Write the structure tokens for this entry.
Amino acid sequence: MGATSVMHSRNSAKRICSGITVILMLGFFSFEFWCYNFVTEPLLAFRCLFNLAFFLLCWSYLATAFLDPGTPESAEWKAWLQVHQSTPEVDEEGQAFGSGGRRQWKPGQAGFCTKCDAPRPERAHHCSWTGTCILRMDHYCPWVANTVGWRNTKHFILTCFYGAVCCLTILCTMRKPTLYEAMGFIVMDPGEVGKPGNDYAVFIAPGLCAVMGMMSCVMLIVTFGFSLHNLHLAACNTTTIECSQSGKNPYELLTSMENICQVMGEFGIWMFIPVLGYKCGNDGCTYPLGPACSQMQRAHSRVSTYGATDAVGSDGKDGVFPWKDSDSGEKPSDPLLPKEDVSAVCEEERS
């Protein structure tokens, strides 16, 4: 089965819905482009700014919609699978959930998808809409009709960013009519309609621009909000799915810029071009680990799941082994450990 079929779902009906969504969005883009350039009369500098942003918007959108987000058909996944099969790791999918049913962090460990019945790299998750696992999956987006994963998260962020730039440019720079004049169409004098020579100047052009203005207002709110949200996730080096996981993020690096570069690529002009991240520091299957990871590895040796405890508690004591700072040196009952393991841990610490 082709990569496109896997990306947009193995179900033919879902693929048809995906195609319709993409066509509708491209139709909306085309209307905005035509109305701004041929109905209004913006200044040349603003026209150039809009058309540049519009070109990058279309490029980013089509890349997000049609680029493989990181399915098992991607080159990165295939390369990882060859290494994984030659040196198989112990999958700990049974320990993926901790107390309360919240998923736990498992840095450096391969997982196993019971739905696909196949191993998968760390941070990969199963997409129920497409029916396949995706590298560093964030979410399925119906507006691009594709899953947002490791290979197209950058393109999705740029789609939102350039969409916001285009909408803001339209609202602030449209002339003859301006946004205010176009909105006046809604309360225009009905007696003006039908007069000779008034149909286009008084009715058609303001009507089209009013529709464009209202649609741009809505899209500006949506795209600007998504831009901020996804940049925040990138700055924390996490995804929408991983936000619900308990414990500290082992992949969060020292600075926000380092985290953003993991998604957008090395800082520079290429960060704003919708191509695969340039020198992003990971291959989608393995990731550099932040300072919180060593804390989790210590906790993992005690509780068998990552992200169970912090390194330093709010009281300044060691959050992994808090009894080290107590006067008695005795290990209190740990709710994260099975009761039968508590005594064994205490003996090991005393020795």
